[in-house]
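Suppose you are handed only these lines of text.
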Amino acid sequence: MADSLRIGIAGLGTVGASLVRILQQRSNELAITCGRAIEIIAVSARDRSRDRGIDLTGITWFDTPEQLASEAEIDVFVELVGGASGQAENAVRAALARGLHVVTANKALLAKHGVELATIAEDKGALLNFEAAVAGGIPVIKALRESLTGNHVSRIYGIMNGTCNYILTKMEKEGLSFEACLKEAQRLGYAEADPAFDIEGNDTAHKLAILTTLAFGNKISADDIYLEGITNISSEDIQAAAELGYRIKLLGVAQVTESGIEQRVHPTMVPLDSVIAQVDGVTNAVAIESDILGELLMVGPGAGGNATASAVLGDIADIAKSRPGAQQVPVLGRPAKSLTEYRRAKMKSHEGGYFIRLTVKDQAGVFASIATRMADNNISLESIVQRQRVHVEGAPQTIILVTHATMEDAIRKAVKAIKNEKYLVSEPQVIRIERT
Amino acid sequence: MADSLRIGIAGLGTVGASLVRILQQRSNELAITCGRAIEIIAVSARDRSRDRGIDLTGITWFDTPEQLASEAEIDVFVELVGGASGQAENAVRAALARGLHVVTANKALLAKHGVELATIAEDKGALLNFEAAVAGGIPVIKALRESLTGNHVSRIYGIMNGTCNYILTKMEKEGLSFEACLKEAQRLGYAEADPAFDIEGNDTAHKLAILTTLAFGNKISADDIYLEGITNISSEDIQAAAELGYRIKLLGVAQVTESGIEQRVHPTMVPLDSVIAQVDGVTNAVAIESDILGELLMVGPGAGGNATASAVLGDIADIAKSRPGAQQVPVLGRPAKSLTEYRRAKMKSHEGGYFIRLTVKDQAGVFASIATRMADNNISLESIVQRQRVHVEGAPQTIILVTHATMEDAIRKAVKAIKNEKYLVSEPQVIRIERT
Ligand SMILES: NC(=O)c1ccc[n+]([C@@H]2O[C@H](COP(=O)([O-])OP(=O)(O)OC[C@H]3O[C@@H](n4cnc5c(N)ncnc54)[C@H](OP(=O)(O)O)[C@@H]3O)[C@@H](O)[C@H]2O)c1
Ligand SMILES: NC(=O)c1ccc[n+]([C@@H]2O[C@H](COP(=O)([O-])OP(=O)(O)OC[C@H]3O[C@@H](n4cnc5c(N)ncnc54)[C@H](OP(=O)(O)O)[C@@H]3O)[C@@H](O)[C@H]2O)c1
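From them, the structure of the protein bound to NAP can be written out as follows.
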């Protein structure tokens, strides 16, 4: 049997502690499967005295991830600290500078410094694996980086934030408000005390940025992503969606258009009978459309200590199974130096169907006026419905429109024109419909 | 750039011709992604004069796959001939004997000789890749062999035959008979002229046998699989399923039980609102349940020249990206020599819910008799419904039972006892319900 693969793990939190536990419990089988033992040589975290329920006897403790990455006698540095900069970044740079292979679950770091780190890794002949960084346990990085080699991807989209999907699922199933469901998600540990990063869509955007690069070969460009979170989604929207045969999901979508690559994160209506509409709770899903393979959809756990550690372990095992000196698999699908500049498609040029919910004063001519404003902008309607659940003379009415595929620009102009008419009682709600 | 990867392709049919086309059209990009060119050196098929719509100029023609595998100056032998023995087998053996890497899409060959071929490959330090052999373009082999390393799989199940899924989908959507849908599948080229291999479940069994080995580490044992095809499924079953909140799919299922590994292929009721129930037409799906990762589901095209060629290309690219001398990834997930004997669980001990449809004479006491026979065998019922769409005095009645989880043995005994009562007008229909 070959020499053991020596690894150092920085970060012993939710993911790191799970990983240590699994590596220790399954060390014999892993040695058989991988053809050599995987040995934890060194670890690092902030608080040395904290009881993590794992046995660290015989493992060298380093006070900082950077020290571990710089000094430990290891083959692979595993970064499970988190954060786009600081210790995580410094340590990964230090490891790559020594030519060590790196495994990380850190989407923030990759979304910010991915191209630079990939370049260093490739120059050094080191591997940089990051399956856990996007959609947790779902092997979407491997699918894009390896299985789809040679394919031209046209669109990639997915449910990549468990917190948002949990909230939307619960709002629908139990008819509760956004706020109530967010509180429940926090109580169950699905949402952070400060949930903004999840519910505003930033977390999804980081993951989408990484997938976009793997799919289309452009440099990572997380700041260019159009962003709308789910804080604005009401029970009324969810119910109206269901009545129209849709379900609302927070999707990250990247697609090739004539004017460039569209990258967007927003609440989206997907057909009720589509596979992705069935993806409930904290589960994630990613769909990839490509020209040779066709459409591939993967569904699975997007977070959690074990599911994430499983992806990290897969990355480590890939390194263990290859032999030293075997340089493989460009980090971002293509050699980092061949990645192209990101060419951004204008969101105004986005084409698709739209759901528009308007709350209007109960006055004559409103319905006709709305229909006229849509027609003025050449928007063709699939349906327009006016309703008032319980008819009360003079109370506000709800008008719901569903459009055929049209340009975002036209929608914006039409909605603006409608707003100018002064019969709206509250802000109009506009939700994009995604073909799945 | 490193030396080019020289490949020989035997079989230029649906898959082989697609592969040649893609390799030629995308040669520049592939060279960039893989870090070296992929060069087709040699090909082989039966009929040299046949126009395949591909340009074979400059490529050496061999009259037999075996000759190609034995003599061509290549690094990788790609087998796209098909068949469990004969030329395909001989050629793969010849290639491995020379230490060549092999890529194949041949499930029949692997289901029969997989363990032996894996052993030879590992002894020779050669790679044997076969992503396309199961569920076409869906990267399920990679998921099991690489991503899930370290996980203990408890169950794997899937829709792995497009012909059957097409027929079942069409029967439901259009209310047509099995025969009518099979004819349509043949007209569209989804089903062979002799469709037995697909509709009797044998094709699914081959694939399941391969997945079982990857999931559980046992030797491949295709002959031990319990088999029921879809020829017996009627529109009435499909409609009754829908009314009860189920959809009928032909599933291959392998799971660990106390008495061994259950491997079975049969029509199955899955909950209407499950993700897998939404998998329509020729699309395939595979679900994997494991202890660290949780549940992973992959959905995609299970056949077709391009989708299958995409998987073959991924396998070739994996070899191109690794450097010579790099031995990796045990062929069947674990080193072939460490695979265990297959321990078969008795089908009689299968536990699950059952759907039973009985057509009975319109006579007093039948309903009570059926309920009593079930109770005699300790089968607890979720529902029992008697109905006659249009009531005609004396015409046969339909009785539909759905059981709670129970033993197959008890069901068989109860059904036998009911048959002995002589009030059945036709054979009872029994369909297993699968928890998804
Ligand atoms: N949790 C998930 O479900 C999940 C899913 C996908 C990806 N990820 C990614 O996985 C990574 C780890 O996530 P996690 O949930 O395991 O985080 P966590 O529970 O907060 O653990 C972070 C670990 O890093 C250590 N650490 C933090 N800052 C440090 C510093 N400046 N110096 C040294 N050590 C430091 C902490 O030490 P102490 O323990 O001493 O405080 C802790 O052990 C992140 O990049 C995250 O985005 C997580
Ligand atoms: N088609 C799919 O969608 C699909 C999906 C998954 C896996 N697969 C697998 O892929 C493999 C190829 O399938 P396919 O659909 O491409 O089959 P195919 O269209 O029937 O092509 C078979 C090729 O092999 C050649 N061939 C057959 N017998 C031969 C022999 N004795 N000596 C030399 N050449 C011989 C044929 O030559 P001629 O052209 O001269 O007759 C033909 O080029 C099979 O193992 C199949 O199970 C196929």
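What can we learn from it? Chain B is about 35% helix and 25% strand. Chain B has a mean pLDDT of 95.
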